[in-house]
Amino acid sequence: MNLRKTAFAFAALLLCGAGSAAPTTLATLTLGTNTAGMGVDPAVGTVYVSNYDSGTLSIINIDPPAIAATFQIGQNPRRLISNAATSRVYVVNDTTPGQLTVFNGKDFGIVSTIPVGDRPRTLAADFLNNEIYVSNSASNTISVVDTRSNTVVATARVGAGPSGPSVNHKLGKIYVASATDNTVSVVDQRTRVVKTIPVGRTPASTYVSERTGLVYVNNVADKTVSVIDSATDVVVKTLPVGAGNESNFITGSGVFRRAYVPNALDNTLTIIDGDAVAVVKTVPVGARPIHAVADGDGGDVYVVNQGDNTVTVINGQTETVTGTFLAGGGPWRATIALGRLLVLNQNGNAADSMTVASTQNTLAGSAVATEFYHAGFDHYFHSASDIETRLLQDGLFGNAWNYTYVFWRVWTADGPDRLPVCRLFSAKFAPKSSHFFTPYAEECAKLQAGTDWQYEGTVYAMALPDATGRCAVGTVPLYRLYNDGMGEAPNHRYTPDRTIRGDMVTARWIAEGSGTDIVFACTPTLKGN
């Protein structure tokens, strides 16, 4: 696996990280009428927005923000999803019969139109398995689309009026809420067998936490969230939340280990702890909140308030409101991409728009490292690059590299008591290629001088513990383990989790570091101090 090109690009982004400041509007871009979906391809710095009434797809450059092009994309384009690894955009056309339109984000053209069920409204993807799942609201079915052949390979009958699917890739299951009959349908990705789980009244959306295997279902009429154990497909808890409506989307953050429920009717955000599986806080926000998005790198959560044209900014660590940002008229969806906050505004009878703003960046000068695992190689890899992470998530190397859902924070530049970390790549042990990370300049230079390792640049920074293995106040230990060449190819694993370190040592990996705890490095705390 060689991600050398993105390593250099991301290193430049890291070293230009901005300090913490309130979001500032950088541009307001006019779109089509009745925006219905938004997707981001960070690899090319592009946002795609579907315009339902206009029948168009707006293609937007993130930096500098500008409309790059507008394309006809078929009647009633609704939700969409993009694949950064293939530069494909998938748009559902909400018609009878319905279709899924495949758009080429590189060459700007329609690749295929795929017939699906009636009135398809939403979709989800498992790009590692080359599949897209389209919910057909009038047919009460899920169309399973193979992205290699661009054909429907299966149709599964689910509950009435199905909403957006969610996927548990680890267990191979698709979850679809039905607000009409108060159920969640579970579709087995391999067999296509469907189970039905009764939940609360009017389930509007679902969120799958693959780290814990729990599925959260937002039941807006009951003011509850049903929690499903995806190993058994049984409701294991019912949590009270605020009063919302069917426009509210439950979302989550693996970094913060939280689920977020906007409550449009009582102007609050309910925060659920994913470890305790309990409501930990209810935060007053703006008028009619309908969407929340977490920025793991910046350390903040943004809540879109449609009723007063604002976005509430919440500190992800303290879970308190730190500011309010004015968006356009009737904001309804937001996302974070390449350090930018992107907000879609419905603007009443006027054309819709996108507000492009800077992020709050409460945890300035840091980023989140995400770990992946290759079962065939028994190798680990991590990256603090949003671009690299997304490319692996979208199947750049097929189903080889999978999330472990282990994260830690790194500094984006060196400074006092911090060392730059150089990254190297070797294909000598092919097919088991490997990356190596080191904060030691001499070690980096020695490997560069040889012929086995290619230098990929400085990717982030870390601090070192003292001789006793202690980290400075405000930082936490990071452990490094070496496989001692098992499998005839070297590999190192880095982890902030002492239990994982112990398990790896039991599996005959060698701990490397200082002190009795064998600490390799010190990093910022994941959620901030």
Short structural summary:
By secondary structure, the chain is mainly β. 7% of the residues lie in helices and 50% in strands.
Keywords for this entry:
4 helices; 42 strands; 4-stranded antiparallel β-sheet; mainly beta; 529 residues
What does this molecule look like?
It is a single chain. The protein has 529 residues and is mainly beta. It contains four helices and 42 strands. Strands 1-32-31-30 form a four-stranded antiparallel sheet, with no helix packed on it. The radius of gyration is 23 Å and the shape is globular. 7% of the residues lie in helices and 50% in strands. The longest helix has 12 residues, at 4-15. The model is unreliable at 5-18 (pLDDT under 50).
Mean pLDDT figure: 94
Largest sheet: 4 strands, antiparallel
How many angstroms does the end-to-end distance come to?
35 Å
- Strands of the widest sheet, in order across it, are 1-32-31-30
Number of helices: 4
General form:
globular
Rg, Cα atoms, Å: 23 Å
Strand content: over 45%
**Helix-strand category:** mainly beta
Residue stretches low in confidence (pLDDT < 50, at least 5 long) are: 5-18
Number of strands: 42
Helix content: under 10%
